[in-house]
Specification:
2 domains, alpha+beta, 187 residues, seven-stranded mixed beta sheet, Glutaredoxin
Protein backbone atom coordinates (compact mmCIF):
# COMPACT_ATOMS: atom_id res chain seq x y z
CA UNK A 1 0.00 0.00 0.00
CA UNK A 2 2.81 2.41 0.89
CA UNK A 3 4.61 1.59 -2.38
CA UNK A 4 1.48 2.36 -4.44
CA UNK A 5 1.13 5.70 -2.66
CA UNK A 6 4.77 6.61 -3.38
CA UNK A 7 4.35 5.65 -7.05
CA UNK A 8 1.17 7.73 -7.21
CA UNK A 9 2.92 10.78 -5.69
CA UNK A 10 5.86 10.43 -8.11
CA UNK A 11 3.46 10.13 -11.07
CA UNK A 12 1.60 13.28 -10.00
CA UNK A 13 4.88 15.18 -9.59
CA UNK A 14 6.06 14.08 -13.05
CA UNK A 15 2.72 15.03 -14.59
CA UNK A 16 2.74 18.50 -13.00
CA UNK A 17 6.41 18.99 -13.94
CA UNK A 18 5.70 17.92 -17.53
CA UNK A 19 2.76 20.30 -17.83
CA UNK A 20 4.87 23.10 -16.39
CA UNK A 21 7.59 22.37 -18.94
CA UNK A 22 5.08 22.46 -21.82
CA UNK A 23 3.56 25.74 -20.64
CA UNK A 24 6.99 27.36 -20.29
CA UNK A 25 8.11 25.95 -23.63
CA UNK A 26 5.03 27.37 -25.40
CA UNK A 27 5.76 30.81 -23.95
CA UNK A 28 9.43 30.70 -24.97
CA UNK A 29 10.92 31.98 -28.20
CA UNK A 30 9.45 30.55 -31.38
CA UNK A 31 11.49 29.51 -34.39
CA UNK A 32 9.61 32.08 -36.53
CA UNK A 33 9.90 35.05 -34.15
CA UNK A 34 12.35 36.91 -36.39
CA UNK A 35 10.25 36.23 -39.48
CA UNK A 36 7.02 37.44 -37.85
CA UNK A 37 8.83 40.55 -36.61
CA UNK A 38 10.25 41.11 -40.12
CA UNK A 39 6.74 41.03 -41.58
CA UNK A 40 5.75 43.77 -39.16
CA UNK A 41 8.88 45.87 -39.71
CA UNK A 42 8.35 45.60 -43.49
CA UNK A 43 4.84 47.04 -43.12
CA UNK A 44 2.96 43.88 -44.07
CA UNK A 45 -0.53 43.77 -42.55
CA UNK A 46 -2.59 40.67 -41.75
CA UNK A 47 -6.30 41.44 -41.42
CA UNK A 48 -8.45 38.79 -39.76
CA UNK A 49 -11.28 37.99 -37.40
CA UNK A 50 -11.26 36.14 -34.10
CA UNK A 51 -13.98 33.75 -35.31
CA UNK A 52 -12.39 33.00 -38.72
CA UNK A 53 -11.07 29.41 -39.09
CA UNK A 54 -8.77 30.38 -41.98
CA UNK A 55 -7.24 33.14 -39.83
CA UNK A 56 -6.60 30.59 -37.10
CA UNK A 57 -4.99 28.33 -39.71
CA UNK A 58 -2.75 31.23 -40.84
CA UNK A 59 -1.73 31.95 -37.24
CA UNK A 60 -1.07 28.25 -36.58
CA UNK A 61 1.62 28.30 -39.30
CA UNK A 62 3.52 30.66 -36.99
CA UNK A 63 3.08 28.55 -33.82
CA UNK A 64 4.56 30.39 -30.82
CA UNK A 65 5.61 33.29 -33.04
CA UNK A 66 2.06 34.37 -33.90
CA UNK A 67 2.18 36.98 -31.14
CA UNK A 68 4.60 39.01 -33.32
CA UNK A 69 2.44 39.00 -36.45
CA UNK A 70 1.26 42.36 -37.82
CA UNK A 71 -2.31 41.32 -37.08
CA UNK A 72 -5.29 43.68 -37.26
CA UNK A 73 -8.53 42.41 -35.75
CA UNK A 74 -11.42 43.25 -38.08
CA UNK A 75 -14.35 41.92 -36.12
CA UNK A 76 -16.50 43.60 -33.54
CA UNK A 77 -17.86 41.34 -30.77
CA UNK A 78 -21.08 40.89 -32.79
CA UNK A 79 -18.94 39.68 -35.76
CA UNK A 80 -19.63 42.80 -37.84
CA UNK A 81 -16.60 44.43 -39.47
CA UNK A 82 -14.98 47.36 -37.68
CA UNK A 83 -14.22 50.73 -39.28
CA UNK A 84 -10.46 50.08 -39.65
CA UNK A 85 -11.08 47.13 -41.93
CA UNK A 86 -14.03 48.70 -43.74
CA UNK A 87 -11.79 51.68 -44.56
CA UNK A 88 -9.07 49.28 -45.81
CA UNK A 89 -11.71 47.65 -48.08
CA UNK A 90 -11.13 44.23 -46.53
CA UNK A 91 -13.86 41.88 -47.75
CA UNK A 92 -12.86 38.47 -46.45
CA UNK A 93 -10.35 36.85 -44.12
CA UNK A 94 -7.46 36.40 -43.94
CA UNK A 95 -6.37 39.36 -46.04
CA UNK A 96 -2.74 40.45 -46.36
CA UNK A 97 -1.39 43.73 -47.74
CA UNK A 98 2.27 44.56 -48.43
CA UNK A 99 3.87 47.98 -48.68
CA UNK A 100 5.46 47.23 -52.06
CA UNK A 101 2.48 45.41 -53.56
CA UNK A 102 2.37 41.73 -54.49
CA UNK A 103 4.47 39.69 -56.91
CA UNK A 104 3.29 36.42 -58.44
CA UNK A 105 5.30 34.16 -60.72
CA UNK A 106 3.12 32.22 -63.13
CA UNK A 107 3.57 30.98 -66.69
CA UNK A 108 -0.20 30.59 -66.92
CA UNK A 109 -2.65 33.44 -67.30
CA UNK A 110 -4.93 33.95 -64.31
CA UNK A 111 -8.70 33.90 -64.24
CA UNK A 112 -9.76 37.53 -63.86
CA UNK A 113 -13.07 38.36 -62.22
CA UNK A 114 -14.53 41.80 -62.83
CA UNK A 115 -15.51 44.18 -60.05
CA UNK A 116 -19.20 43.39 -60.08
CA UNK A 117 -20.08 39.74 -59.59
CA UNK A 118 -22.26 38.00 -62.12
CA UNK A 119 -20.76 39.52 -65.27
CA UNK A 120 -21.92 37.50 -68.29
CA UNK A 121 -19.33 35.02 -69.51
CA UNK A 122 -17.27 34.93 -66.31
CA UNK A 123 -16.30 31.56 -64.84
CA UNK A 124 -18.54 30.30 -62.01
CA UNK A 125 -15.71 30.74 -59.48
CA UNK A 126 -16.04 34.50 -59.88
CA UNK A 127 -19.40 34.42 -58.10
CA UNK A 128 -17.52 33.22 -54.99
CA UNK A 129 -14.48 35.51 -55.08
CA UNK A 130 -15.56 38.72 -56.82
CA UNK A 131 -14.98 41.99 -55.04
CA UNK A 132 -17.24 44.99 -54.79
CA UNK A 133 -14.14 47.22 -55.06
CA UNK A 134 -11.49 45.53 -57.23
CA UNK A 135 -10.84 43.04 -59.98
CA UNK A 136 -9.88 39.63 -58.59
CA UNK A 137 -7.09 37.48 -60.03
CA UNK A 138 -6.90 33.71 -59.52
CA UNK A 139 -3.58 32.18 -60.54
CA UNK A 140 -3.23 28.44 -61.24
CA UNK A 141 -1.22 26.75 -58.49
CA UNK A 142 -1.95 29.41 -55.88
CA UNK A 143 -4.51 28.72 -53.15
CA UNK A 144 -5.42 32.38 -52.64
CA UNK A 145 -6.74 35.25 -54.73
CA UNK A 146 -5.45 38.75 -55.35
CA UNK A 147 -7.68 41.80 -55.39
CA UNK A 148 -6.23 44.97 -56.82
CA UNK A 149 -7.39 48.48 -57.71
CA UNK A 150 -5.07 48.39 -60.76
CA UNK A 151 -4.07 45.77 -63.31
CA UNK A 152 -0.69 44.12 -62.71
CA UNK A 153 2.39 44.76 -64.81
CA UNK A 154 3.56 41.54 -66.46
CA UNK A 155 7.21 41.00 -67.29
CA UNK A 156 7.88 37.47 -68.54
CA UNK A 157 6.35 35.13 -65.95
CA UNK A 158 6.27 37.80 -63.22
CA UNK A 159 3.06 39.65 -62.41
CA UNK A 160 3.57 42.75 -60.24
CA UNK A 161 0.59 44.27 -58.44
CA UNK A 162 1.03 47.77 -57.04
CA UNK A 163 0.63 48.87 -53.44
CA UNK A 164 -3.00 48.58 -52.39
CA UNK A 165 -3.42 45.04 -53.72
CA UNK A 166 -4.62 42.41 -51.25
CA UNK A 167 -4.26 38.67 -50.99
CA UNK A 168 -7.22 36.74 -49.66
CA UNK A 169 -6.76 33.28 -48.23
CA UNK A 170 -4.14 31.46 -46.18
CA UNK A 171 -0.66 32.33 -47.45
CA UNK A 172 2.24 29.85 -47.33
CA UNK A 173 5.22 30.97 -45.24
CA UNK A 174 7.47 30.84 -48.31
CA UNK A 175 5.22 33.27 -50.18
CA UNK A 176 5.14 35.67 -47.23
CA UNK A 177 8.94 35.54 -47.02
CA UNK A 178 9.24 36.24 -50.75
CA UNK A 179 6.95 39.27 -50.51
CA UNK A 180 9.21 41.00 -47.99
CA UNK A 181 12.54 39.65 -49.25
CA UNK A 182 13.10 37.55 -46.12
CA UNK A 183 15.79 34.91 -46.70
CA UNK A 184 16.28 33.31 -43.27
CA UNK A 185 13.12 31.21 -43.12
CA UNK A 186 13.82 28.06 -41.07
CA UNK A 187 13.42 24.79 -42.95
Amino acid sequence: MKTKFIIFVIAVILLIGGLGFLVNKSQGPGKLDDFAKALKSNDAVFYGAFWCPHCMEQKTLFSNSKKYLPYVECSNPDQSMNKTCTDAKVESYPTWMFKDGITITSKDNPTVCQVKPGVAGEPAICAQVSSQYYKTWLFPGYQFSIKSPTDPVKTGDVWKFEKGAQTQGVLPLEFLAQEIGYTNLPK
